[in-house]
Amino acid sequence: MDQFQQLASWIKDSGNIVFFGGAGTSTESGIPDFRSAAGLYQTQHNSPYPPEVMLSRSFFMSSPDIFFDFYRSKMIHPEAKPNGAHRLLAKLEDEGKLKAVITQNIDGLHQIAGSRRVLELHGSIHRNYCMGCRRYYSLEEWLAMTEAVPRCPDCGGIIKPDVVLYEEALDQEVLVEAVDSIARADLLIIGGTSLTVHPAASLVTYFSGRHTVLLNRDPTPYDEQADLIITERIGDVMGRLQGLLA
Ligand code: ZN
After folding, report:
1. b/e for 157-192, b at 16 or more Cβ within 10 A?
2. Residue 104 CA, ligand 1 centroid: distance in Å
């Protein structure tokens, strides 16, 4: 049995799969890891700010114009489409096998592919709220605002994307649901994440089910605990799995 057959048989045997994913899940949809996007931005704009600074709460408050310029040009990819990984996960949820997708991504591609239970640890570009009156704005409404710092027509407050910035805490409710889902799972598939961003990465330690699978191109701090490691592109892996599961 090769690696793919092994994973396919575990998926067939499982009734409670949880997928925990990061940036690598979306790179095949054309969304670069934000660190490489930030590096590109720094070069193009001759910007002295590293990504951790530009995407921090204090920088957002002190230099919203630079924040929004970076955010708009590098963090939002409205043209991106789900790939084979997003689609297979949505199908497994439809079949009642997958109970949750936990993601560090903010692109909303899992929901576009049809996933319903998506726990977004770092928020979503699809939700935006006025900091003054809390009015909600969709991504489309937000994109239609062309000023350097988008402001609420009702009250003039800054419209902030519902994404978790550096120095901001993760949503406690999402975190609790994520811990609970991982603790109940019997198969944990971790994909496209280096498992180095905390506290998100420490979530996987709550798993006590049967098998842990890592789909990642580079080594992670969690490799020794994994039962199976596949280093090929995640969209390709999921595409091959789809065939084996059919
Ligand atoms: Zn407002």
Report:
1. bbbbbbbbbeeeebbeebbeebbebbeebbbbbbbb
2. 28
**Which of 122, 126, 198, 211 does the annotation list as catalytic?**
122
Is the peptide bond preceding residue 50 cis, with omega within 30 degrees of 0? no
Please answer whether residues 234 and 210 qualify as being in contact, where contact means their C-beta atoms are separated by less than 8 angstroms: no
Per-residue confidence (pLDDT) for residue 153, from 0 to 100:
96
Is residue 199 over pLDDT 80? no
Q: How many CB atoms lie within 10 A of CB 62?
A: 10
CB 21 within 8 A of CB 104: yes
Residue 122 is among the residues annotated as catalytic for this protein: yes
CATH label, 3-30+80-122+169-245, candidates 3.40.50.1220, 3.90.180.10, 3.30.1360.40, 3.40.50.1820: 3.40.50.1220
Overall pTM surpassing 0.70 (yes/no): yes
* Confidence grade of residue 198 (pLDDT, cut at 50, 70, 90): confident
Cα separations in angstroms, 237 against 20, 26, 147, 243: 15, 14, 42, 10
- Average pLDDT over the chain reads 93
Query: Separation of 128 CA from ligand 1 center, angstroms?
Result: 11
Indicate whether 212 pLDDT > 80: yes
